[in-house]
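Customer escalation, tier 2.

The customer says the design service returned an amino acid string that "doesn't look like it belongs to this structure." They asked us to rerun it and document both sides in this ticket. The original structure tokens are below, unchanged.
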């Protein structure tokens, strides 16, 4: 039985190391760390994150999955609820660093199950509400910066070069290469390729803004 910490960071002011330090300070003995870096928690399901997807193959019955909070486990209310219940169904125990919550499928008492499921739903709803509030605050800050000094805000620097962007666009245009194949050829993460595929104009604008 292993204790696995899943960490996700999506901005420069967050670090995987900080989440690990918090977990160990809370008393968890971590055997393995699985982490997604630069992945949006709002737009990307857990099963679509490169490392989040690994959790479903890695974790076994009796293992413990540690997360900073339930918002690490999905992009919205439904995704968080579905993932927690799927892990419990597989015999995995989920523990959070914040609030020291524990979710498992051990209890067979219907009343206890109802209380547990209600708590999962409540925590997932709070996670989505907080994520949406943070997203709106960031958008407002960006809009203010652009209005105050239009030339000063360039957004987040792309994690890929112009050459990599052009290669991805070309391979996607052919329609014969899968995401995994494109990732292998270009050296980019699957998530970066999804961003280029789904938000091509924005990604190209970001490259131009950074002079890339």
């Amino acid at each position: 039985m292993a204790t696995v910490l899943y960490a996700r960071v999506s901005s420069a002011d967050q670090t995987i190391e900080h989440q690990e330090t918090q977990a160990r300070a809370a008393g968890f003995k971590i055997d393995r760390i699985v982490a997604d870096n630069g992945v949006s928690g709002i737009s990307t399901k857990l099963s679509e994150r490169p490392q989040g997807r690994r959790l479903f193959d890695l974790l076994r019955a009796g293992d413990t999955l540690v997360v900073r909070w339930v918002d690490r486990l999905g992009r919205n209310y439904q995704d968080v609820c579905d993932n927690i219940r799927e892990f419990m169904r597989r015999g995995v125990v989920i523990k959070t660093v914040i609030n020291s919550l524990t979710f498992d499928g051990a209890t067979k008492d219907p009343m206890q199950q109802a209380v547990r499921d209600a708590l999962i739903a409540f925590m997932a709803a709070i996670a989505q509400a907080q994520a949406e509030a943070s997203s709106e605050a960031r958008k407002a800050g960006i809009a203010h910066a652009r209005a105050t000094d239009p030339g000063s805000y360039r957004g987040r620097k792309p994690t890929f070069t112009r050459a990599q962007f052009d290669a991805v666009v070309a391979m996607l245009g052919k329609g014969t290469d899968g995401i995994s194949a494109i990732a292998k050829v270009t050296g980019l993460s699957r998530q970066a390729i999804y961003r280029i595929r789904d938000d091509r104009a924005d990604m190209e604008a970001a490259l131009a803004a950074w002079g890339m």
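Tier 2 assessment: The sequence is consistent with the input. The chain has a mean pLDDT of 84. The radius of gyration is 19 Å. Sent an explanation to the customer and offered a walkthrough call.
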